[in-house]
Design goal:
Subcellular location: Endomembrane system
Shape: globular
Number of helices: 14
GO cellular component, one term: endomembrane system
GO biological process, one term: cell wall organization
Oligomer: single chain
Pfam families: Cellulose_synt (PF03552)
Radius of gyration: 25 Å
Number of strands: 0
Distance between the termini: 98 Å
Order of helices and strands: HHHHHHHHHHHHHH
GO molecular function: cellulose synthase (UDP-forming) activity
């Protein structure tokens, strides 16, 4: 039998439960979302550690869950920019892991959270490594020891040990050399784009120049994007703000590599410029998909000619002004 009173009681009960659930979620959101002065949720698993939970390493043979990751460059950059902004917000607050974590966690666990918190600041050294040695290479200025100098071995050891450790980690987890190359590429792409914009966003929020907001990641599956992903092609269909830095740095390194090799061979100073030439070559090799997207590809995921033209213009201005500044400083 249908009872109006029963229906009303059920409705009230459901409304009450929904209201309690909403209040509970709102309470948790206030506790978690603003406890670290950030609305980004991905970093807040550290809260349970501070509440007394102990972390354990769990890596079962059978995957514990199935998820879907981003498969195109635009979603990767938008998502990573949000993550970078949240990490820097935590770093700039009183909850910075290096000063807040040691009270509640072990030193190693504090270092792990600290690595995540300071990860976005990779943009600074990578922008320097991708521009300054190249500019000096074009102008015949050596910034590293020559290949015959014993100090050259220090740079070689640091570079090779870093790459070797990453290769070992990839291979030990079932990956391949192709996986390692892709990880290197996406790390470099994120560092010069997402980490830069995410850090600037967090700093501007801290200074009160921007309001806190949460950027969502696109969950819609596109057939063309899926096809490019399955064939190993990067879909460069993203905003010019995110794409331009990547294209600009690639162009700068291509120009510096060609010009630097030519200058070194003519002046017979290849030993002096070896590290700078190799650095440009390494960046150009890792940035080959960008070169391919500018010149060779004709599909929808290619880099638009307008982006290429703008990037060439900015690169020319940077190299011209940089050369002028160096000539003035070295007089």
């Amino acid at each position: 039998m249908f009872s109006p009173c029963s229906s009303i009681r059920t409705s009230v009960t459901l409304d009450s439960k929904c209201g309690v659930m909403l209040m509970f979620k709102f309470h948790i959101w206030l506790q978690v979302g603003f406890l670290y002065f950030s609305v980004v949720e991905d970093y807040f698993t550290g809260l349970v550690n501070l509440k007394g939970w102990k972390s354990v390493y769990c890596d079962p043979v059978r995957p514990a869950f199935l998820g879907v990751g981003t498969t195109n460059l635009n979603d990767v950059l938008v998502q990573s920019t949000r993550w970078s902004s949240g990490s820097v917000e935590v770093t700039l607050s009183r909850f910075c892991p290096l000063i807040y974590g040691p009270k509640k966690m072990s030193a190693l666990q504090t270092m792990c959270y600290g690595e995540l918190a300071f990860l976005p600041f990779y943009f600074l050294p990578l922008w320097c490594f991708a521009t300054i040695p190249q500019l000096c290479l074009l102008n015949g200025i050596a910034v590293y020891p020559e290949a015959s100098n014993w100090f050259f071995m220090v740079f070689l050891f640091v570079f090779l040990s870093s790459l070797s450790k990453h290769i070992q980690e990839v291979l030990s987890t079932g990956g391949s050399m192709r996986s390692w190359i892709n990880e290197q590429r996406i790390w470099m792409i994120k560092s010069v784009t997402c980490h830069l914009y995410g850090s600037l966003d967090a700093i501007m929020k801290r200074l009160g120049m921007r309001e806190a907001k949460f950027m969502t990641t696109n969950k819609v599956i596109d057939d063309e994007q899926t096809r490019l992903y399955q064939t190993g092609k990067i879909d460069f269909h993203t905003s010019i703000m995110l794409l331009a830095p990547l294209v600009i740095l690639t162009i700068i390194n291509v120009v510096s590599f060609v010009g630097g090799v030519t200058r070194a061979m003519v002046a017979r100073k290849f030993s002096d410029m070896f590290i700078q030439v190799f650095l440009s070559l390494f960046i150009v090799t890792m940035g080959y998909p960008v070169i391919e997207g500018m010149i060779l590809r004709k599909d929808k995921g290619r880099i638009l000619p307008s982006v290429t033209i703008l990037s060439v213009l900015v690169s020319t201005i940077f190299l011209s002004l940089g050369s002028l500044v160096l000539s003035v400083l070295l007089k």
